[in-house]
Specification:
The chain is 36% helix and 18% strand. It is built from seven helices and eight strands, in the order βββαααβββαββααα. Strand 4 and strand 5 form a beta hairpin. The structure holds zinc ion.
Amino acid sequence: MFCRFCGAAGAHRFGKDRRHRQRYKCPHCSKVFLRRTNTVKSGSHLSDPQWEMALKLFATRAGMSAADLSRVLGINPKTAQKLNRIFRHVVQGLRPHSIPGVSEWDESMFSKQWVLGGVSRDSRQCLLECITDRREDTMCPRVLRAAGPEGLVFTDEHLGYNGLYRHMTVCHSREFVNSDARFVHTNTQEGIWGHCKTLSWHIYRGFPKASLPQFLSECMFRYNIRIYSTRVSVLSALLSRKTNSYLV
Ligand SMILES: [Zn+2]
């Protein structure tokens, strides 16, 4: 048990608070705190089992909309919305910085906003980000930064990708797998669009444009961490991190 104020280890139990939650006292700074003090949960009136249930539902393959979450937990829909927002906010830090090796890139429209998506065939990690337009000077620097100078990039024949080196294309008006080189296709990335679009239609009734980056990080979180139990433990570790800012 680490101290939520100074980070020192070795805090010992120190009675209960009026909601019967375990209190701890730090031997170093002798401050008294709860398990949730100075984490994103501090100040929340929800109980630990409610937080855990909401966390587990967020880590499932499709997640749960705020309306459903409020019905399952028996809480206010606004509170459920806030919970989902906190989860989306904390998983934003997990987005990959680079997707090296062989990668597929494509762009798609979400709520009248272009999104550029890439997935590495080596690490199976995907990267989704909002872009203002599909011009070459918008897309190429982003692809190059993520794929790196050594990366081999597969795209469709959109002109916005013309500035890339180490680049192979598949003509989507004719075929979905390059008939001369069968390994050149963008079908993995098309599959990721499939995951995101169905989530957007069936769970959330469309991603709102203003918070699209947060919803994209939710998609990346589920895709990049394949195993449910890993997602649960990563998310609960992120929630019990010491933080000084109130998020939502
Ligand atoms: Zn301390």
